[in-house]
Amino acid sequence: MRSVLLIVVTLLLSGSGQAQTSVAERLIARGQADSARAVVNSTATDAASRYWLGRLSEVDGQAKRHFREVTRQGGVHADDAHFQLAESAYSDPRGLYLTARRTYQSLIEAYPNSPHYPMALYRIGRTYQIAARPGSDGFDTQLDSARVNYQKVLDSYPGSHIAPHATVALVTLDQQAVGDRETQATTLPAAPLWGGDVSTFEAAGRMQKETPAAGAFWVQVGAFSKRSSVDALVKRLTGSVPSVRLVDGGNLTRVQVGPYETKDQAERSGRHISRVEKLKCRVVSDG
């Protein structure tokens, strides 16, 4: 902590914008957002400072204004800011998936070498999969569009951290398609779909029938007071996890996914959801 304070004081005295944003980046990586806020000049107008001000903002609208200005100015963080705008729309509880899809698509068109490219492809696929409505005329088209984008991740970025999750997503697409044609009664949920290894994918592909064991484990994804937030989260999760259940907690509704036979499976699922959906998860047990 002492070293952080010395760095902050030194930078405030020096007034070096480039040095300030460099240190702010390191502080954010350490999870020290408050210290980072003390480093970055809140009145700075350069693109790098505006980007980190957006990352540090606790107000969504304010953050978006910073990110839009960064994309306008260009520079090293232009694609990062563009990605943050897309992520904001994707996670919006109002379900702004069409806006998110357009923003991800414009990102990959404008920045073909961006490190965010594989995640943008995955997110585009997710927006199509979420929008697919069983029984609707566009159901097959939506699933096909999702499949194309997931496959692009595997073909072009097989070593990316999101590639294993694209593999899982392809399995869930097949389950979703079967569920529409043969009814949910014959669509048998598989072993945990977020396991993260080949054996899990193979088990999911076989769509084996499982009976939840006594004392089954669940991943609690969040607790919300607004129904709109619950509905948006359930929509994002459905088709990507074994099942989703809502637990009434008085003023809050808890969203849980599962069941998982072991705590280890649930923890791995929780880590995946935390990383991909940016949600804080914890494991709970029925036992």
Note the main attributes of this structure:
Alpha-Beta Plaits; 3 domains; 4 strands
Verbal overview:
By secondary structure, this protein is of the alpha+beta class. The chain folds into 3 domains: 1-76; 91-187, Serine Threonine Protein Phosphatase 5, Tetratricopeptide repeat; 212-285, 2-Layer Sandwich (Alpha-Beta Plaits). It has 13 helices and 4 strands. The protein has helices spanning 2-14, 17-29, 33-39, 47-56, 60-73, 78-91, 97-110, 117-131, 139-156, 163-182, 198-206, 227-237, 263-277, and strands at 217-224, 244-249, 252-260, 282-285. Strands 2-3-1-4 form a 4-stranded antiparallel beta sheet, with helices on one face. Strand 2 (244-249) and strand 3 (252-260) form a beta hairpin. The two termini are 42 Å apart.
